[in-house]
Amino acid sequence: MASLPVNTSLNPHIPHLNSTRSHKLTPTHLTNLPENGKTYPALHKSYFKQISALSKDGQIQEAADLFTEMQSKNFQIGPEIYAELLQGCVYERDIFMGQQLHALIIKNGESFARNEYVETKLVVFYAKCSLFEATARLFCRIRKQNEFSWAAIIGMNCRMGFRERALLGFCEMQENGILADNFVVPNVLKACGALQLVGFGKGVHGYVLKMGFAECVFVASSLVDMYGKCGVLDEARKKFDKMPERNVVAWNSMIASYVQNGMNEEAIEVFHDMRVEGMELTHVTVSSFLSASANLNVVVEGKQGHAIAIVNGFGLDNILGSSIINFYGKVGLIEDAELVFSRMVKKDVVTWNLLISSYVQHGLVEKALNLCRRMRLENFRFDSVTLASILSASANTTDIKLGQAGYCYCIRNNLESDVVVASSIVNMYGKCGKFTYGRRVFDSTKKRDLVLWNTLLAAYAEKGLSGETLKLFYQMQLESVPPNVISWNSVVLGFMRSGDVEKAKEMFSQMKSLGFQPNLVTWTTLITGMAQNGFADEAILLFQQMLKEGNIPNAVSIVGALSACSNTATLHVGQATHAFIIRHSMFLSIPLTTALADMYGKCGCIDQAKKVFDMVLRKELPMYNALISVYALHGQAEEALALFKLLQEEEIEPDNLTFTSILSACSHSGLVEKGFELFGDMISKYKVKPSIEHYGCLVSLLSRHGKLDEALTLIRRMPFDPDEHILTSLLDACGENEELEIGEHVSNMLFKLEPDHSGNFVALSNTYAAAGKWDEVSRVRALMKEKGMTKNPGCSWIRIGGELHVFVAGDESHLKTKGIHSMLAQLGKEMQLVQIMVHKFPAASLASWNASQRGVILGILEHTRPQLGASSSYSPRLKVRQEKTTITTGICCYGGQRPTKKLNSNKQEACRQNVDLPPILPKGKKKPFPIPLEKILQASREDKKLAQRGIEKPLKPPKNGLLVPDLIPVAYEVLDAWKVLIRGVSQLLHVLPVHGCSECSEVHVAQNGHDIQDCLGQNNTRRRSFHSWVKGSINDILVPMESYHMYDPFGPRVKHETRFSYDRIPAVVELCIQAGVELPVYRSRRRTKPIRMLGNKVIDRGGFAEEPKLSQSVDPTSLLADIDTYGALERYPSPTEEEMPHIAQETIGAYEKVKWGVTKLMRKYTVKACGYCSEVHVGPWGHNAKLCGEFKHQWRDGKHGWQDATVDEVFPPNYVWHVQDPKGPPLRSALKRFYGKAPAVVELCMQAGAQVPDRYKPLMRLDIVVPESEEAFLVA
């Protein structure tokens, strides 16, 4: 630290004082200058310049040496030199030197001390050194507070966290008539951003515009930062975009603003733009980018950010290193986080805390505690964040001892009064169920902020203590702590957990009426709570309302909605929700995939549930449990057991839920021995403690198999008191097996357990009825009447279109009741004839039909494949007897439906969007035979019989090698139309753009490619199934289906070794040649005598027509060019605008002519197609070239699987999306179901002005008005 001598007299030689900071500097002198009157001013000026230059360069000690030298030579030292030295102290933050100068200034008298320039410099010096009290005293004493002193005081207040004082200073400055410059304004805007005073900030923005500071890059960057911190992102982006010049601070502010406000995708986009514009990145830039990547859980982008930091040579300082650790910790790459942590040379408490927090978040509590021990060994003290992580770990694991140890550390180190720590302690005690202790900590905390109140509210709400939650909610308001949305969410959660749904809905309405906007947590709490409390329909409506209000659901809210769909078998909403997941490229986490599989399973779509299961590459136990439960629900024990075996092979430990599902599957299928074997393995092999649910499955298993004595013995011996579900299942079995003694015993147990439940009396009455004890039935019914009990009616429903039809037992109010009863009577008679009905349910008795069967009848009447659901919400134990289930099966068969094993949720088959389009077969499936396979086999057997008898089979033209005279003109017409088609398409493509996907076969006719996410090419998941569009060609419109040209179609087949000896030409042209067209360049042998067949052997007796000679005037090159698409765009010129409609109409006419002609020719002439790939061959047999690379081609040695071809295989239409407005926005995935399709040629010609043939109009869906809302179907 530099020092000055202390001047004790008016004009002595002052000794040089030693500095507390070591300097090895050569003294600076100005010598050999005469000191006469003329040279004195020049010398003084030279000293001043030297001192000023040294001060600006930070060489404060050298400047002090010159100052001492001037004093020794009796120079008059004015205030300006003191001011320059003070400025040097400002640059170096040299407090000791500055205080020495201040002392000298005071000793030099009022003329120095009260000099405005010197006073301002002193204020600036103390402010820059953050000496608040000294700065404030000096600022109050100075005679004139100018813009520089105000700038210093405002900057200091802002820097030291006194932001309100900074803003008050700015206001006072304006009142005193001192205009703030572009150095003051950034500090004022920084204070506004920190305090989130957007109104004040906008006022400052107005001042900036008024004063003309808007072009200043520092002011503009500060405005961006202020708006970003205040959450006004639109204004921030607007200002950012208007900046004529952007520095790195502006870019960093924009990225950080997006990250702070949760707009992480936008932050990554700005980061990308920053790199494109060549801006130099900083540690702050990369840190913000890593934060955005961590928040989005995008691993690839985050790793790229780490790579960018390495490439740019950024060291692992505390800021960047902490950001990288935070990223890897949040995305679950703990090992990478540990590696970065180990490579950091200097670590601060924040770095340690981040890794500890990462461990806690991923359940690695032991690692977190070990790192805490290492942290202490390296002499780092725990702060409030460290303790919060430790307490959070104890809360997540309900480890009360660990939590209390952390609490003791807080007390010893006086941290318990910290609000963050206190909140963590309260949360820990709440999660561990020690509410009394948590309340004591809460009450002992003096400064209780909103976070602490919300923590205690959440603790009560999680446990369903709605009364305590509401009481605390009102208490916080009495203590002048206004609640926020989080507080309201806890109150709603408390009522949902306690089952008081109506009160939860009331609080939600009250919350909205008071102006609180529900956030994602609010909606998720309501949806999940409704689904769990049996209000599934309302949960679905809430989910739709949430989407309608523009809220994007997360995985938790979607799981809640899917659970509601499962409970009500609402398949269409479940499918729409699945579509939402796909469209928004949501990460398929284990909870999400488990909920999807469960939803599809409970809605009867077992295949779809299996597909969801197969989608997950790394399967965990919850996925297995979900699918096993689905199989068990539908009685598919074999599939459930096979999946359980697969789980064992994958070495995944099953839990109690796994065994509950697998035992339930055995129960439904009557696998008694297997069920008890699994129960034994559960205890002995897997060490799973049996629960009452497991015993319930065993009781049900024995009961269903008629072993009622063993079931009763098991109930008596199990270590649990039987609940109502176990006893009810046994009582129902007693009724079915007419076992009165056990039934009465079980009923007595049920009456003691639930004396007021009507279902128990009904079950006993049914047991007596089954045994024919009608007196006992009357007695039980009378007892029910005496007790005032009524039987709760069962309920079922069917969804037809968008309307839900509900049927309640005994309710005849449905509008179509008469029609239902009429069909029921007819069905009863028919089933009685085929002995489906039993004597207990006569056909004439309409009362015997239950609500579920009436729902099926309505579906048949409406001519639909209904989606069924059976509810037990009115009576939890109401069951459909076996006879009634058989009746329902009969109804389904009669109505033309194939019943599934579980009849209460039949699968609704999804139709394709356009039924006119050919089906898209999966890769592993062979194309269907155009001719029924039975007919092919029958013809083959007849040929074989003739061959065995030595009889030659006579054939008709053209199968016998002779031409069909009537088809020769057709062939010429087709060839001429083919040429016109190539010419017309080529000309139109000069004007109308066509795009093709570089990764798949998708084609689009429009100015730009569409945005429909249906690409199935390579790496489509990386592109979220978006197509990668490139410029298309004529082959995208006219798919070049080629075939080998056969000089003699009935001659030797094309072999793999000789395939290059044959020309490949368009299959349409080859078909015309074999039908009689003479092309000199592609000759064909014409026969005069027919051939015959003997089995597979060709009997050829010769007889060939003379071949026509090639005319010298014919140019073979021009002939080839006319029939091939190669080089067609170069051959034909671009049409004028007036010619376009005529060419388009001519082209579409040629297209129709080709299709008509090919169809007609193929009725007689044989064309073969491979059943696996797109290869075609014109001729009676396929070729032997081994070129098939499709499904399992290795098994066939690359040979094609030949079968009769269809017209679309020879002349593919290549369907593309129809664009109603070519100049409009690109087509979107969300509206995919509203778009039509058309052959590519038809779409091209229509856009060029041609009239579309009527048969294409339904396919193109020209009558559909495409809506604007992307989510319309979800809120319908």
Automatic annotation (TrEMBL):
Which residue intervals are annotated with compositional bias (Polar residues) in the record?
1-11
Alphabetic keyword roster: Repeat
Disordered: where is this region? 1-30
Which residues form the PPR repeats? Answer: 247-281, 348-382, 449-483, 484-518, 519-553, 620-654, 655-690
What the entry lists under Gene3D superfamilies is as follows:
Tetratricopeptide repeat domain
Determine if Ribosomal protein is one of this entry's keywords.
no
Gene Ontology biological process terms in this record = RNA modification
**Which GO terms label this protein's molecular function in UniProt?**
RNA binding
Q: Where is the APO domain?
A: 996-1081, 1169-1254
Q: Which InterPro entries match?
A: APO_dom (IPR023342), E_motif (IPR046848), PPR_At4g14850-like_plant (IPR046960), PPR_rpt (IPR002885), TPR-like_helical_dom_sf (IPR011990)
Instruction: Give the family from UniProt.
Output: Belongs to the PPR family. PCMP-E subfamily.
The entry's protein name is APO domain-containing protein
Native organism is Rhododendron simsii
Taxon lineage: Eukaryota, Viridiplantae, Streptophyta, Embryophyta, Tracheophyta
